[in-house]
Each structure stands twice: as C-alpha cells, then as structure tokens.
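Researcher: I'd like a structural prediction for the single chain below. Treat it as a standalone chain; there are no partners to consider.
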Amino acid sequence: MDATTRPRITWTTLTPPLALVVLALSWGRHPGTPVVALIAVVLIGAVLAAVHHAEVVAHRVGEPFGSLVLAVAVTVIEVALIVTLMITADKDTSGLARDTVFAAVMISMNGIVGLALLVAALKHHLAVFNPEGTGSALATVVTLAGVALVLPRFTTTEPGAEFSSSQLAFAAVASLALYAMFVFTQTIRHRDFFLPVATGKGPVDADGDGHADPPSNREAWTSLALLVVALVAVVGLAKVESPAIEDAVAALGFPQAFVGVVIALLVLLPESIAAVRAAARNNTQISLNLAYGSAMASIGLTIPTIAVASIWLDGPLALGLDSMQIVLLFLSVIVSVLTVVPGRAKPLQGGVHLVLLSAYLFLSIKP
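Model: Treating it as a single chain, here is the predicted structure.
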C-alpha cells in the first residue's frame, strides 16, 4: 500500500471507539466528580470527532452538500442532548427545547456569522458572499423561528407559551416541509447561489469547491462509519452527563434556561471553528452556509423530533419565547437583513452581530 493512501491513526480515529468504551463502562452508573469530568472530556472529544468526520464526508460530496452534512450531524447531536435531558432530568424541562433551539439560532445568526464576517473582512478587506443564496437561507431561518418559537406565545388555544397538539403537529410538518424545500433549493435547483464567490484572492484548489482537495472514497467511507460511532457515543454519554450539566448550572447560580445555552455552545463550537477557518480562506459563503444551515436545521429538524417525542414525554412543552427573547430575535433579524442584502460586509457588521450575541449571553445569565 502506498504511503499516501495508507490511513493514518489520529485522535479523530481513536476517539469514537474510545468514547464507546467509556460509555459501556459508565452506563447505568452514578460516577463521582472526577469521573464525570473525565467523561465530559471524552464527550467533547466525541463531538469534535463527529464533526471532523462529517467534514471529511462533506469534502467528498462537495459544497453546498458539505455544509448540509455538517449541519445535520450537529443537529443530530443537539436533538440527542435535548431529548436525553428531557427524559432523565429531575427538574422541570418544559422549556429546554425552546431554550436550546433559540440559543442555537442566536449563536448561529450572531456568533458564527459575526466571527466569520469579522475574520474575513479584517483579513481580506471585505467579506464577500452571494446575497441571493444567503438571503434565501436567512428568510427560511426567520420563518422557521417565527412559526416555531414566536407564535406559541400568542396562540390562545393553550395557556402560556404552549402549542395545542394540533398546532404542534402543524408546526412540526411546516418546519420539516420548509427545511426540505430549502435543501432542494440549495443542493439541486439553485445550487450555484450557495457556492463560494470567486474574488481572485482566495486559495485555489484542484476541484474548485473552496475546500481542500477531497479525500478518497475509502477515507470518506471510513469517516462515515466513525461518524455513526461518534454520534451513538455522544447520545449515550450525554445521558450519563445530564445530571452534572444541570448541577453545574445550578451551582453557578444561573437560571435553569442556561442549560439550553450550554448545550448549544457545546454542539456549535466545532462548526464555529469550521466557519472561521473558511472565512480566513476568503470563503465567507461557506461560513454563512454553515451558520444559517445550523440555525435552520436546529429548528426544522429539532421541532418535529420533539413533537414526536412529546407523545411519550410527560408534562408541558413550552416553545414560545418570552418578551426579551423576541426583542433580541427581532433585532437579530433586522441586522441580518441589512448585513446580507449588499452581498459584502465590513468588520463593523461582524462586530454588530457579536455585540448582539454578547447581549443575549449576558441577559441569559442576568435576565
């Protein structure tokens, strides 16, 4: 076998099976603090490894399929963590899905987008992207957020911030249908709107997709298998860690809703890194595909899954945002529209988005 085709043994190769071993040893037990900390390290490693292998598969299938694979992989992790915590937590988790999905939307729309624009604009003078594709993604995210997270606050069939069963079913079907329509648009009908914009300043690669040259079929299949293993490990380890996450949030004196922020930060960290790397390579379009794709998948896939899971879950499911969250979402939408329409951005736009993210995080701790 040629040295260039021989698979290398790296931490991303070893972590998924190691995570499975740790899961098998810890399943059904109540480990102490040192062991919980060790499991947390393995869990984070499994998340990073899962997204790495999703990126390898993504490189093989090309852009914009690559961003889609990564977004779906991240959302599977997010859904697993949400459902696991809702099933195993002793405390009220009626708002956990809402808090986590909203956190993912705010982190994606303001955190990932803000960092990507700031890095690209500082390094390449202007961050350049396709406003047609990006605008379509933003419109889909805004519609999904409005239907799934804002409307429940104003419906009158059920008290509080809840949907009735029929309303939840409608929101789930509408979210899934809209997400499917966007995927069709992004990958088939108008794929060219979501490809990196040629500026003449970025790196040139053999296949011209904005990524490094794609891996071989063997590497892609290996990564696909390791991705499945890593996701299974993440689901199981999340169940083991769920009491510790809630205890840590309570010990810090943060509101219970901050658990959702922790989950979103955990699962979106690798995607944030990938987006910043793409921006540094002057591929801002890939960064925005990742950001809005994550926000979209977070709503379009999580809400239908939670709707189905609610059949077996006890207690209410609060999806409606409170007044402060609606205001933050409204500001984020206005700023995002003003950012996307020109098709290019200065460092200022990145800074504005990051200020909105900072406001959200601070007010999540001190509402």
